[in-house]
Amino acid sequence: VAELHPGLVLIVGALVVAALPRRVGAPATVAAAALALVVTATVPLGTIVTFEYWGIELTMMRMDELARPFALVFAAIIVLGAIYGWSTMGTLERVAGLATAGAGLGVVLAGDLLTLFLFWELKVSTAVLLILARQRATSSAAAMRYLGVHLAAGVVLVGGVMWHWTSTGSLDFGELGRSGASWLILAGFLVSTAAIPLNAWLPDAYPTATVAATVLLSAFTTKSAVYALARGFPGLDLLIWLGVAMALFGVVFAILEDDIRRLLSYHIVSQVGFMVAAIGVGTAASINGATAHATAHVLYKGLLLMGAGAVVYAVGRGRASELGGLSRALPWVLVLYLVGAFSISGVPGFSGFPAKELAVSSVGAGGATAAQWLLKVASVGTFLSVALKLPAVTWFGEARGPVDVRRVPATMYVAMGVAAAANVAIGVRPALLFDLLPADETFVAYTGSKLVESTVLLGFTALGFVLLRSRLGIKATTNLDTDVVYRELPAALAPRARRMVAELPHVPRPAIPTFPRRAPAAAGSVAPGWMLGGTVAGAMVLVLALTVVVR
Amino acid sequence: MPTSIIGRAVVVAVALVAAVLADVVVGASWPGRIAAVAFAASIVLVIGSKSLVAPIVSRPAGSRVGELGDPCGDLRSDPLTASPVEEVDRG
């Protein structure tokens, strides 16, 4: 068991679930996820599993102090996600969800860059399937944009990996230095962290998936990229300011956002910014901070998206401008959501408090005092929009439209309850999290000064919210992100290109495909097969070809 | 919360005094600094987002860009999740 790869357990589990009758899909998914959690928890630190591929020794699994917390929380969230989606997920979501989680585990356990890349691309392919599983025009179109962005990033990543391999002769995944190859690898990683201005795929794609799929999507892509940055680029100064920019950008857009799951998606960008900044500082304490924050973030962001998803499931609407007055209809969803909201806001007693304190204070202790203060400003925006604005417009006030609430399945409450309990447990006893961190550093989260600072920061934010509440009025808007370029530009250029080609002499009229502004409704039902096959096969062929060339 | 400006100013002042006292008790180097930062940040973020950023990036949900970019545009008629009955429809 010690050498059993938990990611492969999930991938094999996905294949088994695909083959099983639909009626046993839910228990089989939970069983596969639970088995992977047990396997992850029992793999001893220091385990290294290698295999030989065309004479190249690849490290399929490396369980060390940095990989362990990421692996454990990945394995935990797939269990919660499988329970949450017990009665709502279709077979495609279950299979894709298990495979995405398996690929995410494969990324964080990969000991070399080639193995990392293969799992990375599998993660992208299966995440696309998760988005497509909703089978709506908007989700299909968002999935295509997600695929385009991540395949482009994958090409950059594999280019960097091959360049690194040929120049150093090594595929080991450790600190990658500052070579041309490492900049390419960094660019590939940064796309997956949703670093601005390459962030738009995240709030574009995640809220278009089904409620359970969004929970799973939120866990693996950005956090495995955070892990990769922590492993490969600790102490890169650029990351400090990139992280700060992400943290502030995310909260500004979250304040404007009308769609509740899109609002929470912008907070993924923002919170990942905290982690990226801490990695940029690069001290042992700040890597601990980034790891702690990433681990807690998977748990509380999962809970927040479960809560928002429960609202959307119950009401069938996801825009704050169409919600309101749900506190009587969905009181327990409110309570559980607030646990997540208090956690992400860093309220003492919840998981985000020790994690965020460690991350932010380590940034300051590492010499980046200005960045530390800007991260505190971002914390203000987090509390403002996630814990104050969103509950106020969703659960309180008058209902904005007819409310026909359908019953939330018990399994959703179970998953949210367990996630909430985990967040409170870490908040009350930070050692549960801190004992898992990579560096042997002591940090005391609960001191008088930290408690006062946190309480004052949150209290004055609440005061500002009360005073400015009328200005926070919700409008039914769509906010343009940087994705407006790749959404609009091809559509704008296509007619011109068509005209230019048509005007060429002696050329048969070409069949230039129209850029799919809105994918056909049936795209979701036909796309998964060719997309998964094509992407995985393409990645495999690319790697094989490059292997031959390099050899 | 009082509705008059004076009443609100009094509330903010009292809260600020309490925050300064709390900072003094725990030995903070600049008593009241975090309170001022948090209060100013909340105002700047709200007003800045709504007054400066929103006019540039926000479009009505029904506009052309809104239709293109509205990630939950079909939620109104879409039950969103695949209920077991809908699963059967998926084939």
Quick recap:
The complex is a heterodimer of chains A (551) and B (91). By secondary structure, chain A is mostly helical.
Write the layout of secondary structure elements.
The complex is a heterodimer of chains A (551) and B (91).
Chain A (H helix, E strand, L loop, with lengths): L5 H14 L5 H18 L4 E7 L2 E8 L3 H18 L6 H19 L3 H20 L4 H32 L11 H13 L8 H5 L5 H22 L4 H20 L3 H22 L2 H32 L15 H15 L6 H14 L3 H26 L15 H19 L2 H4 L13 H21 L8 E3 L4 H19 L20 H28 L1
Antiparallel strand pairs in A: 1-2
Helix pairs in contact in A: 1-2, 1-4, 2-3, 2-4, 3-4, 3-9, 3-12, 3-16, 4-5, 4-9, 5-6, 5-9, 5-20, 6-7, 6-20, 7-9, 9-11, 9-12, 10-11, 10-15, 11-12, 11-14, 11-15, 12-13, 12-14, 12-16, 13-15, 13-16, 14-15, 15-18
Chain B lengths: L4 H22 L6 H25 E3 L3 H6 L14 H7 L1
List keywords for this structure.
heterodimer, A: about 550 residues, mainly alpha, two-stranded antiparallel sheet, globular, B: about 90 residues, 4 helices, elongated, disordered C terminus
